[in-house]
Amino acid sequence: MSSLQGKRILLGVTGSIAAYKAAEWVRSLVKEEAMVTVVMTRSAERFVAPLTFSALSGNPVYRDMFADESERVMAHINLSREADVILVAPATAQTIARLSMGLADDLLATVILAARVPVVFCPAMNSNMWAHPATQENIKRLQHFGYHLVHPDSGTLACGDVGDGRLPEWDVARETLLALFEPDDLIGKKVLITAGPTREPLDPVRFLSNRSSGKMGFALARTARRRGAEVTLITGPVSLPDPPCMEVIRVTTAEDMEKMVMSRASAVQVIVKSAAVADFKPAACQVHKIKKTSQGLHLALEKNTDILKKLGENRKHGQILVGFAAESRDHAGEGLRKLQEKNLDLIVVNDILGTQTGFDVETNQVTLIDRKGSAVLPLLTKEDTANRIWDSVVSLLHKRGGDAG
User: Fold this and answer.
1) Of these residues, 122, 159, 245, 285, which one is catalytic?
2) Looking at the domain covering 8-180, what would its CATH class be?
3) What is the pLDDT of residue 2?
4) What is the model's pTM?
């Protein structure tokens, strides 16, 4: 189930060439089963026809402050009452300026002025307009009012200039929306998460690895960021795009991951080691490709450092340490053994034999084990599983006074 399912999104579209991108945003929201209503300014209609948004959203588009239809007479009040969040995308310099002054000279401005729900602005304009002191002052005023800003992207603009001012990518705006519906119980916490597999080179073309897709670790990173954490994600080779609004460090081998993790471990309050780090590596990586022979091949392997155990031996006072274990049997027994052996606060045991759990699927069913007992979670999406894990971490933080130094 999408976290946006059933959410009532009021989308305000203003007069920017980027208005065509908002149509795709509506499509994405509807795909996630959000309920979308669109309000357009007169200038926006010069770029995209209202019929486009009506067809994509399945709802009528609101345009006129003084519509004759009885159900629209109080639209400026009712629309804000019926929404969970107002998203203004694209937000032009003109719209930002008018709203910073509290003007109510069209339907969208009046709806926002009457709103008692979160308002999110996604600016789009020429880079010089964005950088102008007046625009920056207006942005500060809107943030002072409690409105949320998604910073514009940088790149080549429609006018040919290069700089800040492009409409943000949908993934960034989506994360901002999702954060509004999550608890902010990780604000002020620095979190380090590892994800994905490692690759241990055998020769220039071959390596030893495993089936980890990184999806669980990336879900943990996204959900932690939505709950207010400052996230560093260290990931092995995966095909997933970088989650927005966090530091993402990509590594290849177990040795690379060990160096990155240990260099950052002392600066964070929570470490979640969800990466499937290779236990062994070839004793030597051949300079040239190993040739096929009739005799077969015998590999000499040596053990990699157990990063999780090393973290448990060296962690600072009050730090929360969460491990993952991929198991095919005796989940509770193996999980408890590793919890104690590696000095963990919590371990998440994955069932790698299930068809809907484990590697490279969208769902998971895990067993959570801490020092007081265990709990088997139901089959959930990986993001829902991640939130259950964060619930347990938050509980542990509260028991320790919420501060790991």
Assistant:
1) 159
2) alpha beta
3) 72
4) 0.92
